[in-house]
Amino acid sequence: MIAIKLWKETVKCDLRGNTQFTWNPTTCARFYKKAAAFVLRAVGKHSPQLAQAVVQCGALESLVICLEDFDPGVKEAAAWALGYIARHNSELSQAVVDAGAVPLLVLCIQEPEIALKRIAASTLSDISKHSPELAQTVVDAGAIAHLAQMILNPDAKLKRQVLSALSQIAKHSVDLAELVVEAEIFPVVLTCLKDSDEYVKKNGATLIREIAKHTPELSQFIVNAGGVAAVIDCIGSCRGTVRLPGIMMLGYVAAHSENLSMAVIVSKGIPPLCTCLVEEQEDHIKAAAAWALGQIGRHTPEHARAVAVANVLPTLLSMYMDTHSSEDLQLKTKRALKNILQKCTYLPALEPLLQDAPPNIMKHIVGQFSKVLPHDSKARRLFVTTGGLKKVQEIKAEPGSLLQEYINTINNCFPEEIVRNFILQLQVPILKRERRLLFTLLWI
């Protein structure tokens, strides 16, 4: 490639300090380097194949040499090109690492120029994202401490890249996440959730999510630092995909244990999730909210009741039955309903679902009634007066099925005359229709 050949000669010339020309060789070399780096970046960014071609031409060695250049613009151009190569896959990232780029990139984030800091942090993020081994290489170069110090930098674009890099490191393993936490990013990182820049908010929530997902201990640490409350406030103050990492973070925290799930409930995390379920247009955001609600409600009857009283169960059922919902949304709402229903003993929230639920959901609803009604006389009286018992008689269940067993258990909780009366009420309209049909046939 012409650009690479020109660049190599330029780099060699600059290293020799050749001054035989009438023009300033250092200045011209600088412009050549930046221009060549731009060309390499433009070629390598489009596909792994093109990036591999850049690597095979031997460009990495020259790019790494330019990371040591005195000119910040040359360093920036080289870091940018390396990032575009590394972002494609782990093999290309490993090639960048093998060329010796990581220690020099860590030095670049310590330079005073903001633009250079941004690009160097972005490239470290691109290297770290592919595997634990690559992330460990970045950690071993001492990147975490320097990245953590820049979380409060006033430049929003720099904060985006810093938070992204820390997220890509923390996501791979418990050990890496703990190293990020040990850099004392809490509670400092929580201020990013109130930033005016939406991408800073999103990346800050992503970092917290990637730490919280690993263990109950890390999630508890975040709760103690005020992280759950801060994420809930963030979800309420933004819209669209910016909400997504915060929604998922609440789900991860709640999934770990009863106590952590209760921490989300006590922090008033359920209403914002319900709002996301109703307000958002994108199915993948709704699916995440449904999943998070399912994780909150799946532990005990108390947890399930907290979700049920928010009147979210009919919404979940409606989305599950909506033919326009994506396959992922239908799957997530189905699982959330199952998780919540299997623990829910708050019957007033279940009764409205008796009308429209399909058989695979109905068995979980009726199953909960069959568990509660035999032991609660007040609930039995309300079940009759609110029309619940009548609705149960309207359910068409296969003989011998689990659903039919649940219905029989419910019917056995009441005097036979009451059950028979409801069955007759259902049969009377049918008999009337049959009589009208017979009368019509006789007159034909």
UniProtKB/TrEMBL annotation:
Q: Which Pfam families would you find in this protein's record?
A: Arm
User: Which superkingdom heads the taxonomic lineage of this protein's source?
Assistant: Eukaryota
Q: Which organism is it from?
A: Cairina moschata
Choose any GO biological process term that the UniProt entry carries and state it: epithelial cilium movement involved in extracellular fluid movement
Report the GO molecular function annotations.
Answer: microtubule binding
- The protein, known as: Sperm associated antigen 6
GO CC terms in record: acrosomal vesicle; axoneme; extracellular region; microtubule cytoskeleton; sperm principal piece
